[in-house]
Design goal:
Blueprint (H helix, E strand, L loop, with lengths): L5 E9 L6 H19 L4 E8 L3 H9 L4 H18 L6 E4 L3 H16 L3 E11 L4 E3 L19 E10 L5 H10 L4 E2 L1 H12 L5 E2 L1 E3 L6 E2 L2 E6 L1 H6 L1 H6 L5 H7 L4 E5 L3 H15 L8 E4 L2 E3 L2 E2 L10 H12 L3 H15 L6 E2 L2 H31 L10 H19 L3 H22 L1 H6 L3 H22 L4 H11 L10 H4 L45 H4 L6 H5 L3 E11 L7 E6 L4 E6 L7 H4 L3 E5 L5 E3 L2 E3 L2 E2 L1 E3 L5 E3 L14
Parallel strand pairs: 1-2, 1-12, 2-3, 7-13, 12-13, 14-16
Antiparallel strand pairs: 4-5, 4-6, 6-8, 9-11, 10-11, 14-15, 17-18, 17-20, 18-19, 20-23, 21-22, 24-25
Helix pairs in contact: 2-3, 6-10, 11-12, 12-13, 12-15, 13-15, 13-17, 14-15, 14-17, 15-17, 17-18
Length: 654
C-alpha cells in the first residue's frame, strides 16, 4: 500500500524506575526511522509508552503507601520528560492503564475465549516477579530464573488460570517465518526464534490471581490478565483496533517493532504473532531485536545500579564543555549509532564518547560549518554568491545521496553515518585543496564564488542528512545558513540535490556548535553518568591570588599591536597553530594554542596583542618568538584580545 501510514513502535517500558541508556537507544532508533520517513514525505505513526500492570508495580506502590494508579501517574512523568528532552518525536504515548487499552484487552480476551483459543486450566510452575515470566521447573537454572539477565529467585505457583492455546500455532508460525524470512531480524536472532519454536510450544498461562491492580478477566473478577498478554496488545490499541476501523486499515500491520533481545524470542516473535493469528490479523512486517549496552562488561540495568541516565550525562558534559545541553543530547544520539553496529551488544565508555565528540563533531562537522561561514563573511559579507555548484562536490555527495535511504531503512545506522561523514570529510578536504584564501588573495573572484557556494550548499545537504540523528544540531546549522524555508518542511526528493541553495541567502554570524571537551574536564568514570552534576570547583588559592608585581616589572614587558600575516596548522598537534606575525619592527614566528577555536584562514589580517620580548621557546619543533594575549571564554575557549580601534602595527600597549 503506497499510502499506508508508516507505523513504528518501541516496546512499552516498565514504570518501576527512571529510563536509562537502554531505553534511550531503543527509542532514539525508532525516532531516527520516524524522522527519516517524514523527511521522505511519508505519514508516520511512531508509538512508545509504558507498561503499568505488573505485580512488582503494585508492590512498589505499596512500599510508598500509594495507590498503584497514583504511583504510575508519578513515575510516567520521568519518561515523558526524558523523551521531550532527548528530542523523541513520538506521535502516540500509550499507557496500559488507559481506558482505551483496557477496553481492547478485555474484548480481545473475550473473543479468543469465545472461539476456544483461551481456556481454563490449572497452572503449576514457577513465576519470576522481576522478569514477569512463568517458567517450568525443567527450565530453571539452579532453582533460579533462567534468563541470563535476571537469575533471581522464582516463586512456586499453583493456581487455576486461563491459558492461551499457543501450542496450536507452532506449525503456523514456522511456516510463516520460513515463507517470510525477512520478518525477524537480525538473521542470527531469527535462528534463535526458529530453534525455540521447534523445541515445542506449550500453552501459555495468561492470567494471575487478582492482586488489586491490572485488567480483570471478563466475567471472572478473581483473575487479572497477565502483564505480557496485556502489554503486547498495546500495538493494536494505538493502531485503532476495535475503536477506529478506518485508522486501523491505514496503519496496520506495523512496519517495524523495535525491542531489546531479552523480550524478542519468547514474547514478540512467538506469543505476539500467535495472538495476531488467532485474531486473523496480519503480522508485523518486521520485528527487530538489538543488543544490550554494557559498562565494564555488564548489562546496563537499574537492578545492578549501573544504569546511565542520558539527561544527567548530557547535563554534566554540557556544563564541562560549554556546549548547549540540546547539542550534547544530539551528540549522545549520534554516539550510540556511530560507536556500535545497531543490533549488537556494545560497551559504553566515556572516553570513547569524548573522542567521538571531539573528532567527529567538534573537528569534522563543527569546524566545517564554522570555517565555511566565517570565510563567507570575510569574502562575501556573509551572503551566498551566485555560482554553479562545483562538479567535484556533486560527485562527493553522490554516495551519501544514493546510499543513505537503504542504510537507514535497513537499520544500518552506523553505515548511514559513515556515508554522511564521508561527505563531510570530502568537504573539509575540498577547502584544503581549493584554498579559498589563496583565491581571494589572487583576486580569482569567480572561482572563489564557486568554492564558497559549493561549500555552503554542501553543508545544507549534510544538515538535512544528519537531521534524523541530530535534529536540534541540524536546526542550528540551518539557522546559521540563513535558509528561509524551515528545515522541518524540507523533503528528501526535492531538497536532497546539490545546487539548490538560493543565491543571495544571508547567513548568520558563525558560532561554534560543538565545543571541544577537554580531557581534564571530561568525566573519568562511567559511574559519574548516574550522578547529579557537581558544581564547578572553587578556584584554588593559587588561582584566586597571584603574586603582585611592581610597575617597573610590568614595564619590562614589550606589548605591541601586531598583525597576523599567515597561519597554518602544525602536523600532529590538534591545538597548535603556526603564525607569521608582523610586529612593526620585524616579522616573526609564533606558536599559539588556539587551533580548536580559530581556523587558520580566519586569522589572516587580524591585529592582536603580542608579548614581543618573551624568551624564544621551541614547541613541536617550531621556534616560537612571542606570545599572543587571549582571554578565557565560555567552556574554556580562547578569545583573542584585539585593539578596539584601528591603530598602527607596532603600537605599544601600556
Amino acid at each position: 500500500m503506497a499510502d499506508k501510514v508508516y507505523y513504528i513502535t518501541t516496546p512499552i517500558y516498565y514504570v518501576n524506575d527512571a529510563p536509562h541508556i537502554g531505553h534511550f537507544s531503543t527509542t532514539v532508533a525508532a525516532d531516527v526511522l520516524a524522522r527519516f520517513q517524514r523527511l521522505r514525505g511519508r505519514q508516520v505513526l511512531f508509538a512508545t509508552g509504558t507498561d503499568e500492570h505488573a505485580p512488582k508495580v503494585a508492590e512498589a506502590a505499596r512500599q510508598r503507601s500509594l495507590e498503584p494508579q497514583a504511583f504510575v501517574d508519578e513515575i510516567v512523568q520521568a519518561y515523558l520528560r526524558t523523551w521531550e528532552e532527548t528530542h523523541v518525536s513520538y506521535d502516540d504515548f500509550i499507557r496500559t492503564s488507559e481506558p482505551r487499552h483496557r477496553e481492547v484487552v478485555s474484548r480481545v480476551f473475550q473473543r479468543l475465549r469465545d472461539q476456544g483459543d483461551i481456556y481454563k486450566g490449572v497452572y503449576e510452575g514457577w513465576y519470576c516477579v522481576p522478569d514477569e515470566t512463568f517458567w517450568q521447573e525443567s527450565e530453571l537454572i539452579e532453582g533460579r530464573c533462567p534468563n541470563p539477565e535476571c537469575r533471581r529467585p522464582v516463586q512456586k505457583v499453583q493456581e487455576e488460570n486461563w491459558f492461551f492455546r499457543l501450542s496450536n500455532y507452532q506449525d503456523r508460525l514456522l511456516e510463516y517465518y520460513e515463507a517470510h524470512p525477512d520478518v525477524l531480524q537480525p538473521d542470527f536472532r531469527r535462528n534463535e526464534v526458529l530453534s525455540f519454536i521447534r523445541g515445542g510450544l506449550r500453552d501459555a498461562s495468561i492470567t494471575r490471581s487478582a492482586y488489586g491492580w491490572g485488567i480483570p478477566v471478563p466475567d471472572d473478577p478473581s483473575k487479572v490478565i497477565y502483564v505480557w498478554f496485556d502489554a503486547l496488545l498495546n500495538y493494536i490499541t494505538v493502531a485503532g483496533y476495535l475503536s477506529d476501523e478506518e485508522k486501523f486499515r491505514d496503519v496496520w500491520p506495523a512496519d517495524l517493532h523495535l525491542m531489546a533481545k531479552d523480550i524478542f524470542v519468547r514474547f514478540h516473535a512467538t506469543m505476539w504473532p500467535a495472538i495476531l493469528m488467532a485474531l486473523d490479523l496480519p503480522l508485523p512486517r518486521r520485528i527487530f531485536a538489538h543488543g544490550f549496552w554494557t559498562i565494564d562488561g555488564e548489562k546496563v540495568s537499574k537492578s545492578k545500579g549501573n544504569a546511565i541516565n542520558p539527561r544527567k550525562l548530557a547535563a554534566d558534559i554540557a556544563e564541562r564543555s560549554g556546549s548547549r545541553y540540546d547539542v550534547v543530547i544530539d551528540a549522545l544520539r549520534f554516539f550510540i549509532f556511530r560507536e556500535v553496529p545497531f543490533g549488537l551488544d556494545g560497551d559504553f565508555s566515556t572516553a570513547s564518547f569524548v573522542q567521538r565528540f571531539n573528532a567527529d563533531l567538534a573537528n569534522d562537522l563543527g569546524n566545517l560549518v564554522n570555517r565555511s561561514i566565517t570565510m563567507l563573511h570575510r569574502y562575501f559579507e556573509g551572503v551566498v554568491p551566485t555560482a554553479e555548484v562545483d562538479p567535484a562536490v556533486v560527485a562527493a555527495a553522490e554516495p551519501m545521496l544514493q546510499g543513505l535511504p537503504e542504510a537507514i531503512e535497513g537499520l544500518r545506522f552506523g553505515a548511514a553515518l559513515d556515508l554522511i561523514w564521508g561527505f563531510i570529510g570530502a568537504l573539509n578536504k575540498y577547502i584544503d585543496e581549493r584554498a579559498p584564501w589563496k583565491l581571494a588573495k589572487e583576486g580569482q573572484q569567480e572561482a572563489l564564488a564557486q568554492v564558497m557556494y559549493s561549500l555552503i550548499d554542501g553543508i545544507r545537504l549534510a544538515a538535512l542528512a544528519v537531521s534524523p540523528f541530530m535534529p536540534e544540531a541540524a536546526k542550528e546549522i540551518w539557522r546559521q545558513l540563513g535558509i528561509a524555508a524551515p528545515l522541518e518542511v524540507q523533503r528528501w526528493e526535492t531538497a536532497m540535490q546539490p545546487g539548490l541553495l538560493p543565491a543571495a541567502t544571508a547567513t548568520a554570524s558563525p558560532e561554534p556548535i560543538f565545543r571541544r571537551i577537554e580531557e581534564k574536564s571530561a568525566p573519568t568514570k562511567e559511574k559519574k553518568m548516574t550522578e547529579t552534576p557537581a558544581p564547578a570547583p572553587a578556584p584554588s588559592p593559587a588561582e584566586a591570588e597571584k603574586p603582585t608585581v611592581t610597575f617597573d616589572e610590568f614595564k619590562r614587558l614589550d606589548l605591541r599591536v601586531s598583525r597576523i600575516e599567515a597561519a597554518e596548522r602544525i602536523p600532529k598537534a590538534d591545538k597548535l597553530l603556526k603564525l607569521t606575525v608582523n610586529t612593526g619592527k620585524d616579522t616573526r614566528t609564533v606558536v599559539a594554542g588556539i587551533a580548536q577555536w580559530y581556523e587558520p584562514e580566519s586569522l589572516v589580517g587580524r591585529k592582536i596583542i603580542l608579548i614581543c620580548n618573551l624568551a624564544p621557546a621551541k614547541i613541536r619543533g617550531v621556534e616560537s618568538q612571542g606570545m599572543l594575549l587571549a582571554a578565557d571564554g565560555p567552556g574554556g575557549s580562547a578569545v583573542l584580545l584585539q585593539p578596539e580601534q584601528d591603530v598602527p602595527v607596532g603600537s605599544s600597549v601600556r
